[in-house]
């Protein structure tokens, strides 16, 4: 059985992971046999017996990193505490040390969570009631899923970017800060040897990993070290998708320290990933979306993340993560996705536009993969019609075959599982909205990689300078199509 482990690092990443698992949980129909479900929950969840062994639970195959205080009221959850107090030895989830999640100061459980606990009618959510991802999480995580940066604290209003504990005015920013945090007191090695290894042992056949993190904070350096150690010591051949949230700023809008931090994070993450996807909140948003709300903006990003993950877990027309990656890279070293689009209703959103510098002319597309999901209003015949539409698109008549070949670089995936909207999801999606999500690899990274190389040659000193320049040059060559003039950078920093 294929399984996928998700590792999310930072409050922003955890909001995205929460939306994903809530959506996956909504696919589970407890009134019928799980084997009849169109979505196989065992891919993204671990099936376990409930505490009293009266029913089955599904806990995410997830590892979560957050700041001290980032878990909201989770430290007070009685179902979390029970995992550590099972005197009869009934807990088969975890026999090692359980992370003690701190809460600073005491944070009250949200009304939504109280209603979930008591099986009551769920109140509507809003920006004020979703400051923490734990305010609206509908799933129970295993005790060993939780990991906390004890040296750094979080408040969604006062210091949303995280700050050094004890009230010191130092933000969690800079690549090197994240690297140091990973290495401090063997923290990273202990995490991998205990919690990550335990998660691997609970998989029969690991399909792949998703790393969800940030590019423009210290989480980037922290994640880079994590990913490198996983790649070197645990899963050298496993398919890894890295989803890098960035702050939406173009390279030229950053200060020199910010540019260097982004370059270092970017190089490390893409190097150790099968596919690297940068994402930010789109510049143009639906009118109902508040860009300051992580609950809302991460819900939008989940419309990129979730459809591709559901391809792996759907029973009909299942697609492996490695196949998705292969259809994008086409046997090359082009791992960087440069166009990330979602279409629903009248909206057409781009999540990676500002990460790449625009070059002259329209970019060439090397590969494009698109997932089509029907609306919640779609009938069975509508879904069949959708499938047949793309079957016909890829089937050419004899005359056409003589004129041209099938373009294998453009792949359309069909998911017959309709767009789901959990009660925890914002209401910007209509029941009549179908969903089209695309990942595209184009020539756009070339110009950005050249600009990065120019910056490194001017401002970086020491042993790493030549290695970074050489790596950026080699990467840029991968994104050249046809004959092009050598194009140096004219930009100054």
TrEMBL record:
<comment type="similarity">
    <text>Belongs to the misato family.</text>
</comment>
<dbReference type="InterPro" id="IPR036525">
    <property type="entry name" value="Tubulin/FtsZ_GTPase_sf"/>
</dbReference>
<dbReference type="GO" id="GO:0007005">
    <property type="term" value="P:mitochondrion organization"/>
</dbReference>
<dbReference type="GO" id="GO:0005739">
    <property type="term" value="C:mitochondrion"/>
</dbReference>
<dbReference type="InterPro" id="IPR049942">
    <property type="entry name" value="DML1/Misato"/>
</dbReference>
<comment type="function">
    <text>Involved in the partitioning of the mitochondrial organelle and mitochondrial DNA (mtDNA) inheritance.</text>
</comment>
<feature type="domain" description="DML1/Misato tubulin">
    <location>
        <begin position="123"/>
        <end position="307"/>
    </location>
</feature>
<feature type="domain" description="Misato Segment II tubulin-like">
    <location>
        <begin position="3"/>
        <end position="117"/>
    </location>
</feature>
<keyword id="KW-0496">Mitochondrion</keyword>
<dbReference type="InterPro" id="IPR019605">
    <property type="entry name" value="Misato_II_tubulin-like"/>
</dbReference>
<dbReference type="InterPro" id="IPR029209">
    <property type="entry name" value="DML1/Misato_tubulin"/>
</dbReference>
<dbReference type="Pfam" id="PF14881">
    <property type="entry name" value="Tubulin_3"/>
</dbReference>
<dbReference type="Pfam" id="PF10644">
    <property type="entry name" value="Misat_Tub_SegII"/>
</dbReference>
<protein>
    <recommendedName>
        <fullName>Protein DML1</fullName>
    </recommendedName>
</protein>
């Amino acid at each position: 059985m294929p399984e996928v482990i998700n590792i999310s690092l930072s409050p922003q990443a955890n909001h995205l992971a929460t939306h994903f698992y809530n959506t996956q949980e909504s696919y589970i129909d407890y009134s019928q046999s799980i084997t009849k479900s169109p979505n196989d929950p065992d891919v993204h969840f671990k099936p376990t017996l409930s505490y009293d062994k009266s029913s089955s639970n599904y806990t995410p195959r997830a590892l979560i990193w957050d700041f001290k205080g980032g878990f909201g009221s989770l430290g007070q959850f009685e179902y979390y505490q029970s995992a550590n107090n099972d005197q009869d030895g009934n807990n088969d989830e975890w026999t090692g040390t359980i992370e003690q999640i701190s809460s600073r100061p005491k944070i009250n459980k949200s009304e939504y969570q109280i209603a979930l606990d008591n099986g009551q009618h769920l109140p509507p959510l809003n920006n004020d009631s979703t400051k923490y991802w734990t305010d609206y999480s509908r799933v129970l995580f295993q005790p060993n899923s939780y990991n906390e940066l004890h040296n750094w604290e979080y408040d969604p209003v006062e210091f949303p970017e995280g700050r050094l504990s004890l009230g010191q005015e130092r933000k969690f920013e800079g690549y090197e800060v994240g690297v140091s945090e990973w290495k401090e007191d063997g923290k990273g090695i202990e995490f991998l040897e205990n919690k990550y290894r335990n998660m691997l042992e609970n998989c029969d056949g690991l399909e792949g990993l998703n790393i969800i993190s940030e590019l423009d904070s210290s989480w980037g350096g922290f994640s880079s070290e994590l990913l490198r150690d996983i790649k070197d010591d645990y899963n050298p051949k496993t398919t890894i998708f890295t989803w890098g949230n960035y702050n939406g700023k173009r390279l030229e809008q950053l200060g020199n320290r910010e540019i260097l931090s982004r370059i270092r994070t970017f190089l490390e993450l893409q190097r150790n990933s099968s596919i690297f996807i940068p994402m930010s909140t789109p510049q143009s948003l639906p009118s109902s979306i508040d860009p300051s709300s992580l609950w809302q903006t991460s819900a939008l990003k989940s419309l990129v993340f979730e459809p591709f993950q559901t391809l792996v877990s759907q029973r009909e027309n299942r697609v492996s993560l490695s196949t998705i990656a292969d259809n994008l890279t086409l046997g090359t070293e082009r791992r960087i996705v440069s166009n990330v689009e979602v279409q629903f209703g009248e909206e057409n959103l781009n999540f990676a536009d500002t990460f790449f510098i625009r070059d002259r002319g329209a970019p060439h597309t090397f590969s494009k993969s698109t997932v089509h999901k029907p609306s919640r209003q779609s009938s069975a015949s509508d879904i069949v019609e959708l499938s047949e539409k793309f079957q016909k698109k890829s089937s050419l008549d004899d005359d056409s075959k003589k004129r041209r070949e099938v373009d294998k670089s453009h792949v359309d995936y069909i998911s017959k599982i309709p767009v789901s909207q959990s009660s925890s999801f914002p209401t910007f999606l209509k029941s009549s909205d179908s969903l089209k999500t695309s990942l595209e690899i184009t020539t756009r990274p070339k110009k950005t990689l050249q600009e990065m190389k120019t910056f490194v040659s001017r401002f970086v000193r020491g042993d790493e300078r030549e290695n970074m320049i050489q790596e950026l040059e080699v990467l840029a060559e991968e994104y050249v199509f046809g004959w092009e003039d050598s194009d140096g950078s004219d930009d100054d920093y």
